[in-house]
Amino acid sequence: MLGHEAPWREWRQAMAGHRMHHAWILSGPQGVGKGSFALAAAAELVAEAGVPQPEPDAHPDILIPEHPPATKEDEKKREAGQPFNRKRAITIDEIRNLQRRLTTRPTLGRRRVVIIDPADHLEKNAVNCLLKSLEEPPEGTYFLLVAHRIGRLLPTIRSRCRILRFAPLPDAQVELVLSRAVPNSDEATRAAAIVAAQGSPGVALEFVEEDLAPVHQLMQRLLDEGDAGFRLRGALSAELGARPSRERVAATFELARAVLAGALRGADPARQARLIEAHSAVARLGLEAPQFNYDAAMLAMELGGLIAAAH
Length: 311
Description:
By secondary structure, the chain is an alpha/beta fold. It has helices at about 5-15, 35-45, 70-80, 90-100, 125-135, 155-160, 170-180, 185-195, 200-210, 215-225, 230-240, 245-260, 270-290, 295-310, and strands spanning about 25, 60-65, 110-115, 140-145, 160-165. It has two domains: about 5-165, 3-Layer(aba) Sandwich (Rossmann fold); about 210-310. Strands 2-3-4-1-5 form a five-stranded parallel sheet, covered by helices on one side. Helix 7 (about 170-180) crosses helix 8, helix 10 crosses helix 12 (about 245-260) and helix 12 packs antiparallel against helix 13 (about 270-290).
């Protein structure tokens, strides 16, 4: 893993202490590596000297509730071993299944870790259900809650957790991630991805993998020029595609948020206010998009309008 020396230092100091806190929130922008940190940190915590340890994502003492299939058709696809779409939210049934497993002892040692990724995508009923476990954790059980937007977590959840904060990575580290993960990508595309990502390797990888360079150029023009004649919004709609995958839509929204956030630096107060308002609106629309099955063309037009409004 690259970067995040401060969270690692805080985590290992806690592990070395006499009473480690049982619940942690890993808070920071999406795509900076919180999920990878959670797996690696969990593996350190559950390891027992002299006991062979499986890989973290297959470890019996590292429990990760899943996002279930989105529809009954997707359930059939999962059973058939085919690719399928998942629900955006972690449901109460997944948390109840988890709690049943917590009534047993850890398998390979004295500790187990529950990773909720992301915790800000829990259903409301699932949050209340999880709260019971945070209030009365089984002995030897620790919780790592990954949060892209910590403000969306209930105060009752936040008050029971210690917070680890994750900052964006330097551009040099984002570039190193790209060079390792997509070594054959175009140099100009990687350079644009680094600028657009604003310190998030995950956003940079999605930029390259989803070929979002043309989308990024259109977003910048919408921000710089506005779009009185709707021409740029139409071009953005065409670039997104008639039937984009969920991954492409999600990556487009993360890119839009990064573009707006990047424009804040050096902006005058009036423009900063417009950028912040547009950023909030894009974030809300991004949360709604997977749930309401919007028409892709209308979604792109709305997204383009929000960016143009910050011109």
